[in-house]
Amino acid sequence: MKSCLRASLGFLVLCLLAAFVDADQHSFVLEEEFRHVTCQSALKLANKKLGCRLHSLGITYGTGSGQQAVTCLPAADDAGSYFLVRTAFGTPDCPRGTPIPCGTVIRLLHQGTKTSLHSHAAHKSPLTRNQEVSAYSGSDKGDDWRLVCAKSSDKYWDRETEVKLQHVETGKYLSAASGSTYNVKPPGQLEVSAVGHTGAEQTWIAQEGIYFGKPE
């Protein structure tokens, strides 16, 4: 059984029934009220192919921009993998609980360090030499990512559905690299970069997190 934090009448109440395991179907069912990823959701993004979670920690790259590193962590229970969904750079924040339409430009704020998921064409990633992805302590248009839903029929960003994140300034996609492992703790962290093609390693799924119903 999966758990969530439920928003009700302005209070957060621990909710253990947002996802029910179906023993016969070997799947789980989300409560309809909490199906969408919304403004100010704090979530973990799992890579479709590798199963690791988008992650950041208080260390910086020794090459490239020297900004805070972003990785993909195999462990699902690390608090350093939560990112807050925000609106694009220079735009007002939308009300908590507002569903995110497919195609929306968003920012992802790392909860632990208050830095934004960021990329830039000027720097290469340390291992694969793709476009570097970092966690940036400032704020500019390099923080903007376009939400690309996998299915053309999808209207909103839903939990447990496949999406891609396309960097607005450079057009490249957020990616995790199998076989490109950093020698840092916690162990097993994979390089995250931005690439010009799409596939399973560029596909992400919103899983664990704090989700909200629609504003009342």
TrEMBL record:
Q: Does the keyword Signal apply?
A: yes
Q: Which InterPro entries match?
A: MIR_dom_sf, MIR_motif
**Pfam families on file:** MIR
- The organism's superkingdom is given as Eukaryota
Q: What is the lineage of its organism?
A: Eukaryota, Fungi, Fungi incertae sedis, Chytridiomycota, Chytridiomycota incertae sedis
Query: How far does the signal peptide extend, from start to end residue?
Result: 1-23
Q: Where is the composition biased (Polar residues)?
A: 127-137
Q: What is this protein called?
A: Stromal cell-derived factor 2-like protein 1
Indicate the segments forming the MIR domain, all copies: 97-150, 154-209
Recite the UniProt keywords alphabetically: Repeat, Signal
Species in which this protein is naturally found = Geranomyces variabilis
Disordered: annotated segments: 119-140
PANTHER family named in the record: GH21273P, STROMAL CELL-DERIVED FACTOR 2-LIKE PROTEIN
